[in-house]
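Hi support team,

I've been running sequence recovery on a batch of backbones for a student project. Most finish fine, but this one hangs at about 90% for roughly twenty minutes before it completes. I'm not sure whether the input is malformed or the queue is just slow. I've pasted the structure tokens below so you can try to reproduce it. Let me know if you need the job ID as well.

Thanks,
M.K.
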């Protein structure tokens, strides 16, 4: 595919940063989760109303920023084409696809394994002492990885091929966290593949 418009991507990155902008050490999603959890233990009516207002305001802000990102992607032919291709993948919805379009513009131009390394889910060796034989993941792009993690959880439950893949790993004694990371690798490598081929993913291709 053609080179992506750098100015458009820079603007979209700013919008995504705002959508996940930290207030103190937490981002909007963490704040919403924390406020909703706190609400379960609030009995004072006036405090409950204040918390509900804060939750609603944060939710509206996230929705507004997400809508702006999706609107701007749709207005750019190249970005819209990439977004549509990524949404064909199991577990990848509009927001995750938008994050990949904006934060991983290299997708579609990398060799096998490079996309997983860029995301931070490629295994590497650290053979020393008692750690010999163990494999680890490290580094990579934190925000896309967080969303791909959520996509992997959904995909391994609902996509037949990835569900079977995850079950094979479980049958071989692999721990749940390792299984999710393996599905994440599958998804990000598939994202690179669909963009390189400029063809949507199919269930046949996933088998």
């Amino acid at each position: 595919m053609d080179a992506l418009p750098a100015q458009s991507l820079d603007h979209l990155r700013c919008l995504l940063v705002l959508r996940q902008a930290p207030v103190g050490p937490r981002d909007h999603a963490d704040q919403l989760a924390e406020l909703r959890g706190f609400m379960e233990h609030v009995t004072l009516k006036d405090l409950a109303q204040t918390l509900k207002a804060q939750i609603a305001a944060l939710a509206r802000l996230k929705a507004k920023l997400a809508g702006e990102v999706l609107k701007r992607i749709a207005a750019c032919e190249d970005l819209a084409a990439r977004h549509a291709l990524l949404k064909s993948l199991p577990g990848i919805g509009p927001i995750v696809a938008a994050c990949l379009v904006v934060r991983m513009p290299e997708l579609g131009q990398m060799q096998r394994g490079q996309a997983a390394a860029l995301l931070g889910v490629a295994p590497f060796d650290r053979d020393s002492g008692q750690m010999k034989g163990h494999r680890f993941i490290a580094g990579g792009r934190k925000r896309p990885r967080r969303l791909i993690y959520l996509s992997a959880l959904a995909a391994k439950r609902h996509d037949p091929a990835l569900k079977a893949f995850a079950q094979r790993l479980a049958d071989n004694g692999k721990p749940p966290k390792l299984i999710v990371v393996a599905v994440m690798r599958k998804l990000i490598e598939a994202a690179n593949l669909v963009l390189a081929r400029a063809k949507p993913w199919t269930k046949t291709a996933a088998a």
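--
Follow-up from support: It reproduced on our side and the slowdown came from queue contention, not your input. Residues 45-74 form the longest helix (30 residues). No action needed from you.
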